[in-house]
């Protein structure tokens, strides 16, 4: 068995004295593991870092075997990602999210999202929105997608400001007002195009996805929220404060 495809490195673990097991996210073959012989060498180590784009050739005698990778660099962005807190925590969070998916289960939409985010993790404002939309897409791929297009009570597409914590459906201001203290906030930029993804809106958005990950995924599997998620949120908050101090951010 053999195939060749580009992928993004999610993680690496030691295997023996000189080899490593590399975890890749590929577009057509999903999250895939393989042994890289000599992966701890000086030549290979800089290539086998999370966030790097590589071309992998996978070989195995049988399809169900882990198999071996031969890895060639395509774009080495790991060093740049490790220069900033949001880059460092961001790639760790995305890897943790993708590990919620079955191995070798293709999710091309998530692969494309990962590739876009990896290119913009140096921009705290933009990467925050991209990561949030990635979380919404992941919930959908896991079978727990939110319906934010119309009010669950009236069918209206106007003035959507809440999300039901039970159904994951949007609720308009008027319909949700009697239960507003039980509702989750729906950021305007998720409810309609053109809304601003400022610090408050991003915080509301991440609070929204956290609720549904906890409700449907983390608690059900007996796992904790990835620590890197709080690292990402802290980096976004810090960047927003810094931008406001300089007079360049939305809070200025």
Summarize the structure.
By secondary structure, the chain is α+β, with helices and mostly antiparallel strands.
Structural notes for this entry:
The strands form two sheets. This protein has a five-stranded antiparallel beta sheet with strand order 3-2-1-4-5. The protein has helices at residues 78-81, 85-98, 108-120, 124-141, 173-176, 188-191, 199-221, 227-246, and strands at 2-15, 19-26, 30-36, 53-59, 68-75, 160-163, 170-172, 184-185. The chain is α+β, with helices and mostly antiparallel strands and 252 residues long. The model has no long low-confidence stretch (mean pLDDT 93). α2 (85-98) runs parallel beside α4, α2 (85-98) runs antiparallel to α8 (227-246) and α4 (124-141) packs parallel to α7 (199-221). The chain has two domains: 2-76, OB fold (Dihydrolipoamide Acetyltransferase, E2P); 81-148 and 186-246, no CATH class. The chain contains eight helices and eight strands. β4 and β5 (68-75) form a beta hairpin. The longest helix is centred in the C-terminal third of the chain and has 23 residues, at 199-221.
């Amino acid at each position: 068995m053999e195939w060749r495809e580009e992928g993004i490195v999610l993680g690496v673990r030691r295997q023996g004295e000189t080899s490593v097991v590399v975890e890749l996210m590929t577009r057509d073959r999903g999250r895939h593991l393989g042994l890289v012989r000599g992966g701890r060498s000086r030549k290979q180590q800089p290539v086998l870092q999370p966030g790097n784009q590589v071309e992998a050739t996978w070989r195995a005698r049988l399809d169900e075997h882990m198999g071996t990778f031969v890895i060639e660099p395509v774009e080495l962005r790991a060093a740049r990602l490790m220069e900033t807190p949001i880059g460092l925590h961001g790639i760790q969070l995305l890897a943790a999210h993708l590990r919620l998916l079955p191995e070798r289960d293709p999710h091309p939409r998530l692969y494309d999202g990962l590739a876009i985010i990896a290119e913009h993790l140096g921009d705290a404002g933009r990467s925050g929105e991209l990561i949030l939309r990635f979380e919404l897409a992941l919930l959908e791929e896991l079978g727990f997608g939110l319906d934010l297009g119309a009010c669950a009570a009236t069918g209206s597409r106007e003035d959507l400001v809440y999300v039901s914590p039970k159904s994951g459906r949007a609720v308009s201001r008027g319909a949700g007002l009697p239960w507003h203290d039980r509702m989750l906030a729906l950021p305007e930029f998720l409810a309609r195009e053109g809304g601003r993804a400022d610090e408050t809106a991003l915080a509301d958005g991440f609070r929204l996805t956290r609720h549904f990950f906890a409700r449907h995924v983390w608690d059900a599997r007996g796992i904790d929220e990835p620590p890197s998620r709080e690292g990402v949120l802290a980096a976004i908050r810090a960047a927003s404060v810094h931008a406001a101090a300089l007079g360049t951010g939305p809070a200025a």
